[in-house]
Every structure is written in structure tokens, then in C-alpha cells.
Amino acid sequence: MTSREKALEARLRRKLSELEEQIADAEVKALLPPATCTQVELYVQCQQDRIKALEHEVTCYTAELDYLLERTKPSDQLELLTLNQANGTHGKTPEPATV
Questions:
Q1: Of 70, 71, 93, 72, which is closest to residue 83 (Cα–Cα)?
Q2: Does residue 97 carry a pLDDT above 70?
Q3: Do residues 97 and 80 make contact, with C-beta atoms less than 8 angstroms apart?
Q4: Which of 46, 49, 63, 76 is buried most deeply by CB count within 10 Å?
Q5: Which pLDDT tens digit goes with each residue over 24-81?
Q6: Burial state string for 83-98 with b = 16 or more CB within 10 A and e = fewer than 16
Q7: Where, if anywhere, are coiled coils annotated (predicted)?
Q8: Between the CA of residue 20 and those of 6, 14, 28, 45, what are the distances in Å?
Q9: What is the pLDDT of residue 99?
Q10: 87 and 94 in contact (C-beta within 8 Å)?
Q11: CB under 8 A, 24+ apart: contacts of 50-53
């Protein structure tokens, strides 16, 4: 078998696998009552929205930490980061370090 034939066979196997997965998903949806399908879709959407909200929260905390680090003296930056990690605040506003 040539390399081209092997590549074609591999591509066809991947496509077959994808189609089998789509068929299995369709069969599961066909077995579920329409209300259950809607509930599952709503649950998935809710979880995706929750993930986006958490990602946004992490972005805000990171920006806040960056802002605080920019405003501190270089000698205090390490102390702020250490306090932040030690206290498990990870993004919450740490108390200003005293010199």
C-alpha cells in the first residue's frame, strides 16, 4: 500500500469515527423525551455561561493585581506576591506592604 493510500485510509477512518459519533449522539437524543433534550441543552449552556463568568472574574483579578504591582516599589512587589499566594487571596486586594 502506498503512502497516499495509507493517508487516504487514515482520513476515511477518522471520518467514519466522526460519523459514528454523530449517529450515537442522534440516537441518544432520539431516546430522550424532547423536554429532557431541552433541559440538557439548557444545562450545558448554563455551564458554558458560568465558565465565561469565571474567566472574566480571573481576568479582572489579574488586571487588579497587575495594577497594584505597577503602583508598588520593586522591593514591595515580591512581598505582595508572596502575601497574595500565602493567604490564598489570588486576585483579592492584598493589604499594602509596610516598609
A1: 93
A2: no
A3: yes
A4: 76
A5: 888 877 777 777 778 888 888 999 999 999 999 988 888 888 887 777 766 666 676 7
A6: ebeeeeeeeeebeeee
A7: 2-64
A8: 21, 10, 12, 24
A9: 45
A10: yes
A11: none
